[in-house]
Amino acid sequence: MRKLWIVAVLAAGVTAVLVSPASAAAKSHSLTGTITLQGQAALSTPDGVCTGDGDIHQGASVTIRNGSGRIVKVAPLGPGRDSRPSGDPYSGCVFAFNVKVPDTRFYVIKTPRGDEVTYSKSQLSRSKWQVTLALGTRD
Fold first, then answer.
1. CA-based angle 79:82:85, to the nearest 5?
2. Is residue 48 domain-resident?
3. pTM for this structure?
4. Which of 24, 26, 92, 124 is packed most tightly, with the most Cβ within 10 A?
5. How many domains does the structure of the chain reveal?
6. Dihedral sign of CA atoms 74, 80, 86, 92 in order
7. CATH code of 110's domain
8. Which of 87, 83, 89 minimizes the C-alpha distance to 36?
9. Which of 81, 4, 70, 68 is CA-nearest to residue 35?
10. Is 20 domain-assigned?
């Protein structure tokens, strides 16, 4: 693969600025995911709109950290939809999120409820940067 270098020369002198592809634009990934509430936590209206529970609801934050624990992005959950008509045995209320994350070796995804799941970059790459999380009824 050929590397691209951008060179800018100013007319007032012989000043040159070199920018490598890596520094020109830090690599990022579009991470998409869903959180499904199951059981009694999956509250929905007759028209299929889910209201969620006290923690999981539209606008609640999903936090993504790197392997060192630094927060790299926070994403809001979208509106909930009732997935029960699909016949999925793990159905319930589904809330989606989508966020661009910087390139790092590990990602820790924390749900608004406080549950955490760690993925390596290679795991997310194999899953095409899509994650599916399921939460049951909280005791």
1. 155
2. yes
3. 0.73
4. 92
5. 1
6. positive
7. 2.60.40
8. 83
9. 81
10. no
Q: What is the DSSP string of the chain?
A: -PPP-EEEE-TTSS-EEEE-HHHHS--EEEEEEEEEE-GGG--B-TTSEE---SSSSTTPEEEEEETTS-EEEEEE---EEE-GGGT-TT-SEEEEEEEEEE--SEEEEE-TTS-EEEEEHHHHHHTTTEEEEEE----
pLDDT of the residue at 2:
33
Torsion of CA 2, 101, 104, 57, to 10 degrees: -160
Judge contact between 58 and 95, C-beta under 8 A.
yes
* Cα gap 109→73, rounded to integer Å: 10
Judge whether residue 16 has pLDDT over 50: no
Cα separation, 135 vs 65, in Å, equals 20
CA–CA distance, 56 with 1 (Å, rounded to integer) = 45
Confidence of residue 38 (pLDDT cuts 50, 70, 90): confident
Please give the residue range of the domain that contains residue 61. 26-135
Region 22-38: what's the mean pLDDT?
A: 80
- CA separation for the pair 97, 76 (Å, rounded): 6
